[in-house]
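Tutorial handout. Part one gives the primary structure; part two gives the three-dimensional structure as tokens.
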Amino acid sequence: MSPPLVQIGRPPRERLPGFLRKPATDFHAVQLLKNDLRRLGLHTVCESARCPNIHECFSQRAATFMILGNLCTRGCAFCSVPKGSPAKQDMRLDPDEPANVARMARAMDLRYVVITSVNRDDLPDGGSAHFAGTVRAVQAALPEARVEVLTPDFCGDHDAVARVLDAGPHVFNHNMETIARLYRAVRPQADYRQSLEVLRFARRHAPGTLTKSGLMVGLGETEREVNKLLEDLRAADVDVVTIGQYLQPTRRNRPVSEHVPPERYERWKQRGLELGFRMVFAGPFVRSSYMADLVNEQARNSCGAGT
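Part two.
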């Protein structure tokens, strides 16, 4: 009788349920857009964070630009964006990046431009001046386009937040990512209350700007804890919230605790609307910048929003 087979190496990843399978079908479109981005030395969070929607978005010539380079100074457990240490790697800002983002956005004929960034805790202003410069460059190149920013917390520096807001984005987004109890494990270099204060400050500083935040589920939170986060976001006067399933991007990242069933997103959506959000975009494949143009349009059209 043959001896039993012994598996060597890491066990295979857990098979995804049917509602979390999204086929990759547009390899040609993805490669074409990647080539265009690389020619200008640009990065997207779609690639670096291994977004499951990349084929769908790239085939429609949509992408979320990621500025301040492609190395993050933080080590969040959920994120696959490359990590870097200023002391060990060349992390100088590219002075041409703002103009190149604008050039690429214009070449893509975008009418809605989303700009995010890595965390740059090594910089005195967290990269906020560079962020603001990118917003202004895009506005100059595409004056009819709407601009959404998805910023880091800038270590709670409200002057840095104001610097980005003063550039005039139409939507200010800062993601909470997860519930308060999981911050130490999931976002060890961030602070739950600090992120809420960033959003609360953004509302006070630029009251005409739509505010937005997003979170992942399937990290070990309870339904009640998500409801508490929604309540905290409304207390900070946030307009729009996105909720999507966490999917482990690499084996080095935090494992998935649960594949959240679709009906639970519906309950959170209804709870969010009861709390007074202008828009709650919730579902397994929802990401903070996914279909951001349509989310913004629906939020603007609700409750007489003027942004």
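Part three, for discussion. Confidence is low (pLDDT under 50) at residues 5-11. Strands lie at 43-44, 64-67, 112-117, 146-150, 171-173, 210-217, 240-245, 279-282.
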